[in-house]
Amino acid sequence: MANLNESLQDLMTLDGAVCAAVVDYNSGMMLGSIGSGVDLELAAAGNTEVVRAKMKTMKALGLTDSIEDILITLGKQYHIIRPSAKLAGIFIYYVLDSGRANLALARRKVSDVESKMTM
Question: Whole-structure pTM over 0.85, yes or no?
Fold first, then answer.
């Protein structure tokens, strides 16, 4: 099991990692962060709305599945949002340089980190 800081440091070991944060989507508050290049406070609040909207839509559609991750591809970056399966109300936000990062490895990394994370 890895604590919050160890989890964030582990995410930054992947080639192309820019920054990462752990966010409480009930409040929109960032619980921890690492890296730079993105205003993580603003991103935490904005991505909280993304997660809430997706969960609301899934409920309206009667879907009983869970979100593995939400991927947003920009021209130069990948943004991965992964709600925690173990820690209710928590998600990992992970930003990568798309020119250097391998998306499949990044998804695997954030999944592995999420599965080992403790608060």
Answer: yes
Per-residue pLDDT of the chain (119 residues; tens, 9 = 90+): 679 999 999 999 999 999 999 999 999 999 999 999 999 999 999 999 999 999 999 999 999 999 999 999 999 999 999 999 999 999 999 999 999 999 999 999 999 999 999 87
CB 4 within 8 A of CB 31: yes
SS (H, E, C) 31-70: EEEEECCCCHHHHHHHHHHHHHHHHHHHHHCCCCCCCCCE
Are 92 and 107 in contact by the 8 Å Cβ rule? The answer is no
